[in-house]
Amino acid sequence: MRELALNVLDITENSLSAGAKLIRIALDIRFSADTFSICIEDDGCGMDAEMLARVTDPFTTTRTTRKVGMGLPLFKYSAESTGGRFDIRSEKGKGTRVYAEYRIGHIDRIPLGDFGGVILQLVTMNTGVDFVVTVRSEEAEGELDTRAFREVLGDVPFTEPEVRAYIKEYIQENLVTIYGGRL
Ligand SMILES: Nc1ncnc2c1ncn2[C@@H]1O[C@H](COP(=O)(O)OP(=O)(O)OP(=O)(O)O)[C@@H](O)[C@H]1O
Ligand SMILES: [Mg+2]
Question: Per the count of CB atoms within 10 A, which of 25, 53, 108, 161 is most buried?
Fold first, then answer.
């Protein structure tokens, strides 16, 4: 994938398919340590231990009774190929947490890309699902919580042009400015 933001979209789509009602996306940056991490956590249906063991490595098994895709393996590879790490935890009936850590300056690191655009798309296109998105660095911290927006907006959908424009600007000012063009 050309942009890590598209990996984030892919992984979050898994959470949506899992019936999540609240999805947390966190981008934590430590410029001084030349690392950042992406964490996607949901309260969806989760996976049992056997499924969990298979999902990050589709080539280690010959069992084909369940669909195994490439979203998680690609996300894992994107992190590990930079000398970073990957971790997935899941509990059946409780939810799933996917974590990837990157070395910023590594030659194989894929650019973050349009993270703000992906967040805007996720937030506006998924009525009935709440998102808490945080971006943190040593210098600043920003958060978007759709539950807070809903409290103010009531029944006004996020797809209303004025609302969408407001959210777009909010993402730009509170989340994207924290890393600017640096990732
Ligand atoms: N957050 C999640 N909650 C519950 N199950 C999950 C979650 N993420 C992944 N899974 C399970 O792991 C499988 C593999 O996910 P992965 O993203 O690698 O591939 P996929 O979604 O099946 O296909 P694609 O290649 O289109 O992403 C999913 O089909 C799903 O069964
Ligand atoms: Mg997927």
Answer: 25
